Amino acid sequence: MLEVRALEAAYGASQVLFGIDFAVRAGEVVTLLGRNGMGKTTTVRTIMGILPARAGAVHLDGTPLTGLPAYRVAQRGLGLVPEGRQVFPTLTVRENLVATAANRLRLPDPWTVEKVFALFPQLAARASAYGGTLSGGEQQMLAIGRALMTNPRLLILDEATEGLAPLIRAEIWRCVERVKAAGQSILLIDKNVRALTRVADTHYVLEKGRIVWTGTSAELASREDVQHRYLGV
Questions:
Q1: Which CATH number fits domain 1-77+155-164+185-233: 1.20.1250.20, 1.20.120.450, 2.40.110.10, 3.40.50.300?
Q2: 69-107 per-position pLDDT tens digit
Q3: DSSP readout, 31-74?
Q4: Measured between alpha carbons, how far is 173 from 59 in angstroms, rounded to an integer?
Q5: C-alpha angle 183/111/98, rounded to 5°?
Q6: CA-CA distance, 203 to 33, in Å (whole number)?
Q7: Is the pTM higher than 0.90?
Q8: Which of 18, 93, 111, 198 lies 20 to 30 Å from 223 when distance is taken between CA atoms?
Q9: How many other C-beta atoms are found inside a 10 Å radius of the C-beta of residue 55?
C-alpha cells in the first residue's frame, strides 16, 4: 500500500534522512524504531508532506505523494496522530471528531463519532469537554479518534504512548489491536518494544537517518543484540 523509496530529507543544510526504504502492506502494522533523533518523526513529516523531500519518492497504492501539500496527502488517505497529540483545545471532544470527519474512499462502514466513542468510552463521557481540559491520555485517545474519523487507508501514530500512565498505555495498545483486527493498516512509532512485538508485523530500525535492520516481531524479540545496540538507552 505505502511504498517509500530512497527518501531523503533535510532541515536547511542539515540532512536527516539518507535514502530510507520501507513499505506497509494492506492490513499490516509496521513500526519505525530507533533512539531519539534518529529520523523517525522526520520520516513521518516527509511522508505527510509537512517537510519537503530532498530526494526519493512516496507512493500510496501506486499514486505518487511526493511534492503534494500536506492536506492533499491527507485527502489521499493518510491519517496522522502527531507527536504531542495537538488536539484543538477550544473545541469540544465531539467537535474535534466532527471537524475531521470524511469518507472520501466511500467505505461502506465508515468511522463515526459513535464508533469512536465505542472504542474509547472515556471520550464518550467527556463529549462536551474542551480538548484543552483533557488529560494527556484522553487527548491521545481523541487524537487517534480524530485521525480515524478521516477513514484513512493508512493510520500513522507518532509516539503512540509517550508520556502516558501505564493504564492509559495499555488502553492505547488495546485500541491498536482492535483497529488492526478490523483491517486497518498502521505505521507506528513507539519505544515499547515488548508491546510493539505483540501488535506489529514488521519492524524497521533507524540509525542516523538510515534503515539498519528490518525483520518480523519474532525476529526482533529474539535479537537482544539489535535491541541493545539500536534501541537501548
A1: 3.40.50.300
A2: 999 999 999 999 998 889 999 999 999 999 999 998 888
A3: EEE-STTSSHHHHHHHHTTSS--SEEEEEETTEE-TT--HHHHH
A4: 28
A5: 150
A6: 7
A7: yes
A8: 18
A9: 15
